[in-house]
Specification:
Blueprint lengths: L22 E6 L8 E8 L5 H10 L3 E8 L2 H23 L22 E5 H9 L3 E2 L9 H4 L3 H7 E2 L10 E2 L2 E13 H7 L19 E3 L3 H11 L15 H11 E4 L6 H4 L5 E5 H10 L3 E4 L6 E10 L8 H9 L2 H10 L29 H5 L2 E2 L5 H15 L1
Parallel strand pairs: 2-3, 2-4, 9-10, 9-11, 13-14
Antiparallel strand pairs: 1-3, 4-13, 5-13, 6-7, 8-11, 8-12, 8-13
Length: about 400
Amino acid sequence: MAMTEDPLTISRRSLLLGAAFSSLSVILEGCAGQSSSSLQIRALQGSIPPQMLNEFRRQAAGVKLDYAADRQLEELFALLQTWKRSQSSNNSQKSSGFALPSWVPFIGQSDTANPVDLVTLGDHWLSGAIAQGLLAPLDAATVQGGSALLNTPQWKALVTRNAEGKLDANGKVWAMPYRVGTTVIAYRQDIFKQQGLQPPTDWADLWRPELKGRISLLDQPREVIGLTLKKLGKSYNTADLAAVPTLAAELRSLNQQAKLYSSTHYLQPLLLEDTWVAVGWSEDVLQSGQRSPNVVAVVPTSGTALWADLWVRPAANPTIPPAVAEWLTFCLQPAIAQQISLLTWGASPLLFGKSLADLPTELHRAPALFPDPKIVETSEFLQPLSKTAIEQYEKAWKAMRQ
């Protein structure tokens, strides 16, 4: 029977060091003389290379950039909630005729008290952030390259939502993607060679008899049920699981293949040879592969789940400095897109979906960053589900694990 961890909702890349909040502030001063504008950003650590910050300082000499990086997406989402609560509290005080003097600090929040101009948010969090009123929409038309990017159906569908956070082709644009990755199959190529086994290439390989008890699966219903649906030729975002009669049997069979479920420690058993295969997020797996060349990442040929890092505007910040559009435009420059793809473990959306043969040779270091365009076409972002669909997924997940 597979080992499990507590069924908590864990974001991707929780493998990043520790669960505690941490930030690294980097203040980039402009050239001699006073800056004409400023820009405050809170990003996910590792998603923006230092070279990129230096290049922005060079190009936008009149902008003072205040940059801080946080280790986890959960912390960034929590900051958005904190700023919203603080704004609501201040508005309540004003409407009652009482407001604290401006010099009185917001107790317990220190440097997080004031909302910044732009924040990194994972696509998983976008729907909830919109529904909770944490975000303000973006004006993509003012961003050079933004309109062209959002003309791509896959990207437009991801960030165009109504006020409830639901997909809406006629809704507003709430985010701008700057990094993307996939859910992959990681395997130990040395073990497969020793055992005389063919490497995995698609989700169906997880059901191979010789891998029974040798697989680590994510402790995520949408990911595991989704890959099983994909194996059956269905969508990750299937709304009615009852319409897939063979799904329950496939899930029970996959559970028998698994040695453990974890969203945080799925790679350690692979490194220790306790498992031979793991399902995980490309950023984690590719970083691990850099340390251990025997760990190889494969993007399943039938398609996979996608994830993205997005720039969003906190609703608690009423001002929109001109430098916001300048930064978003900067992130969509071809040279900067290449920097993101080369110096982080994610691909720029400008390059993702292109054939590896059409990309600069320096980007060939990690082929799994750039799956075959045909695979990208059949891959999907995990979309918000209805309450009824969520209940179906929870029921199927519970039945699978029994």
